[in-house]
Amino acid sequence: MVRITIVRSLALEIKKKFSKSEANKILDLLYTLEESPSKGKTVGNVGGVIIRELKYKGFRFYFVTDGFVLNCMKEKELIDLLMHFVRMSDKRKQQKVIDEIKEVLRNIGPSGFV
């Protein structure tokens, strides 16, 4: 079973930036990864942890997951895979946000996102 978690600060940022109905659409989009965990584009890899993004209009939503489990298991065999949404950006700040995520992963690890 794939488990999706969204960092509280990201959820608040989504609710603040978008209308209520659009924020609900975005959250539903993020939770669609439970059915299709290979969705999204890989944008980085730090120590076996993959950084991926989902796009919604002009925004990108970044999540981290265990690369070994995602690459080696088939969709039906995914057990206890955790996908942790951590950040959001627009196209202009995309590389800066990816670099910040990589820095946190290098220094603290996946537990650095609260």
Brief rundown of the structure:
By secondary structure, the chain is of the alpha+beta class. It has helices at about 10-15, 20-30, 65-70, 95-105; strands at about 1-5, 40-45, 50-55, 60-65, 80-90.
Outline the fold blueprint.
Blueprint: E1 2-6, H1 8-17, H2 20-31, E2 41-46, E3 49-56, E4 59-66, H3 67-72, E5 81-90, H4 94-107
Parallel strand pairs: 1-5
Antiparallel strand pairs: 2-3, 3-4, 4-5
Structural notes for this entry:
With 114 residues, the chain is of the alpha+beta class. The protein has a single domain, classed as YaeB-like fold (2-Layer Sandwich), CATH 3.30.2310.20. Helices cover 37% and strands 32% of the residues. The protein is built from 4 helices and 5 strands, in the order E-H-H-E-E-E-H-E-H. It has helices at 8-17, 20-31, 67-72, 94-107, and strands spanning 2-6, 41-46, 49-56, 59-66, 81-90.
Alpha-beta classification: alpha+beta
CATH homologous superfamily label: RelE-like
What is the string of helix and strand elements?
Answer: EHHEEEHEH
Q: Give the end-to-end Cα distance, rounded to a whole number of Å.
A: 22 Å
Number of domains: 1
Oligomer: single chain
What would CATH call the class? Alpha Beta
Helical residue percent band: 25-40%
Specify the CATH architecture: 2-Layer Sandwich
